[in-house]
């Protein structure tokens, strides 16, 4: 790659990890006052995967990252930045999960850090990777979205425990001079006015660990579900319309629309607003639930492994999460198609 020509960021590879254990709607019927019918109708979710007790966010991130590095035709030594999007890190203060993942992958003396943008984390990470690469600072960035969401879910609260699952996804974003491989656009934004829509009240400086925290269950995720739902549909639709308009690409030219997998009704409403055909819209929420920052890379991995996503094809990513945060990206898949 020449450094005198313009340098672009390209999406070279994808990997994911899904934990073995399955929590089905029928299992949840035995735990809280709910039904498979209610969950399916309101969310589209049939089952979600949960990490084992001794399986941590970094373990899942490592498994996804190993695949992504190998599929990019690289080794750990080629990676010069490791970033991990997560709101369920191994440790809430330090060390970062990115540092632990780097160590487990044998990546040493390389910049590594976590960042929190909830479900928008992976696409936020793409914007960070793009900036580092286009500024010439880095060449191969490992972007990971990994969550052990089950660690912050109260399995006696039916309004949240039906929604979330665990998992990880990772991508290698590399420098290229080939404009055809380049990211077209990434847009990430936030509005803290809605910070109370999705909150994990503890641990943190507002609620340090105490008996009161445990007695009141403040370590668990709390969500204003209905308000979040309405804002998600509105924001996701607006954001994706804007990125398509700005880049003069009609929605019918998008082969792979990959929205955040929180609720099938949200996905359907946004797809319909964009006049997308069913085959353009990627849906994995029925089998993984909402895996927060891992949701989009897990979905990309699914369509890559099944042979649906091929080299050069355009992806439109669209996500929304706690913060509130949202982000969209328009980019070709620059890696090789899966060998089938
Ligand atoms: N089983 C049965 N009944 C339930 C359940 C359940 N699991 N959960 C709630 N209910 C009941 C409620 O108690 C309520 O009963 P009431 O009318 O007697 O009071 C009724 O069902 C309706 O509740 P709503 O909360 O209004 O249901 P809604 O249709 O909004 O669905 C849901 C709830 C699925 C959570 C939906 O609001 C949603 O998906 N919200 C968006 C989530 C999202 O997009 N998150 C993205 C970001 S996530 C992140 O960043 C980590």
Distance between the termini: 29 Å
How many strand units?
13
What percentage of residues falls in helices of 4 or more residues? 25-40%
Tally of separate helices: 11
CATH level 4 superfamily of the largest domain: Thiolase/Chalcone synthase
| SSE pattern, N- to C-terminal | EEHHEHEHEHEHEEEHEHEHHHEE
Backbone shape: globular
Question: Which small compounds were modeled alongside the protein?
Answer: acetyl coenzyme *A
Q: Could you tell me the strand content as a percent range? A: 15-25%
What would you note in describing this structure?
The two termini are 29 Å apart. With 340 residues, the protein is of the alpha/beta class. The longest helix is centred in the C-terminal third of the chain and has 22 residues, at 225-246. Helices cover 32% and strands 23% of the residues. The model has no long low-confidence stretch (mean pLDDT 97). It has 2 domains: 8-179, Peroxisomal Thiolase, Chain A, domain 1 (3-Layer(aba) Sandwich), CATH 3.40.47; 185-332, 3-Layer(aba) Sandwich (Peroxisomal Thiolase, Chain A, domain 1). The strands form 4 sheets. It has a 5-stranded mixed β-sheet with strand order 1-7-6-4-5, with helices on both faces. Helix 4 links the parallel strand 4 and strand 5. Bound molecules: acetyl coenzyme *A. Acetyl coenzyme *A (ACO) binds at residues 34, 38-39, 42-43, 118-119, 158-159, 162, 198, 225-226, 228-229, 232, 262-263, 266, 290, 292, 320-322.
């Amino acid at each position: 790659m020449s450094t005198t020509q313009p340098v672009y960021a390209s999406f070279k590879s994808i990997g994911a990890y899904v934990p073995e254990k399955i929590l089905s709607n029928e299992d949840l019927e035995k735990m809280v006052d709910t039904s498979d019918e209610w969950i399916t109708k309101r969310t589209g979710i049939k089952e979600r995967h949960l990490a084992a007790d001794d399986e941590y966010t970094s373990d899942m991130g490592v498994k996804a990252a190993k695949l992504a590095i190998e599929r990019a035709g690289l080794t750990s030594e080629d990676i010069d930045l490791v970033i991990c999007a997560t709101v369920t890190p191994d440790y809430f203060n330090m060390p970062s999960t990115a540092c632990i993942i780097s160590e487990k992958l044998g990546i040493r003396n390389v910049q590594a850090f976590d960042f929190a943008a909830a479900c928008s984390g992976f696409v936020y990470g793409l914007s960070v990777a793009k900036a580092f690469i286009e500024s010439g600072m880095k060449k191969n960035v490992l972007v990971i979205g990994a969550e052990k969401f089950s660690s912050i879910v109260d399995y006696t609260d039916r309004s949240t425990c039906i929604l979330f699952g665990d998992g990880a996804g990772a991508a290698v974003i590399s420098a290229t001079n080939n404009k055809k491989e380049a990211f077209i656009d990434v847009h990430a934004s936030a509005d803290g006015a809605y910070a109370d829509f999705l909150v994990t009240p503890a641990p943190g400086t507002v609620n340090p660990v105490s008996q009161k925290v445990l007695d009141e269950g403040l370590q668990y995720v709390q969500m204003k579900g209905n308000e979040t739902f309405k804002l998600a549909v509105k924001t996701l639709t607006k954001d994706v319309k804007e990125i398509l308009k700005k880049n003069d690409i009609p929605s019918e030219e998008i082969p792979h629309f990959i929205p955040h997998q929180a609720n099938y009704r949200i996905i359907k409403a946004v797809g319909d607003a964009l006049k997308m055909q069913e085959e353009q819209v990627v849906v994995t929420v029925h089998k993984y639930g909402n895996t927060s920052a891992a949701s989009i890379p897990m979905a990309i991995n699914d369509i890559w492994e099944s042979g649906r996503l091929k080299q050069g094809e355009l992806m439109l990513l669209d996500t929304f999460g706690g913060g509130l945060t949202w982000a969209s990206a328009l980019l070709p898949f620059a890696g090789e198609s899966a060998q089938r």
